[in-house]
Structure prediction request, 157 residues.
Amino acid sequence: MNKTRKGFTLIELLVVISLLGLLAALALVSYTGTQKQARDTQRKSDTRQYQNSLEIFANKYDGIYLSYGSAASVNATILCTPLGLGTNCPDDPRIDEGQSSYQFSADGPGDGTVSATQYVLWAELENTSEYWIVCSNGMAGTNDLSGGFPVGGTCPL
Prediction:
């Protein structure tokens, strides 16, 4: 009597498990990259929201902005309250994980008074080693800021 067994061999099972593990690893790497890209898109959107709010503010004050000469972290005191954003103050998506907040610099005395004629706002991107920058002259783009952070509202673009 000839007995035949139906099923998979150990080698076949190991090959299938290895392939599934490889596919799972590839999916995880792709997912992480997609998350970084999504957070970078959020940073760009947030800085554009600040830019819009700064332009609305300047329209109320004859084209003059808030003055902060050196780089200042954007927070409720620096921009959100003066711009009327209140509790809707956008911040970096990973601020709780040690990511730097958005930065703001403008010309003028640097004391937070309404006396600046130009500004620059920037955010550190995750997916590249660059910064997303928006300027009072309407320009926006990326720069590695290898020459240092902008001061006095000078646009590095």
Notes: The mean pLDDT is 85. The chain has two helices and seven strands. The CA atoms of residues 62 and 117 lie 10 Å apart.
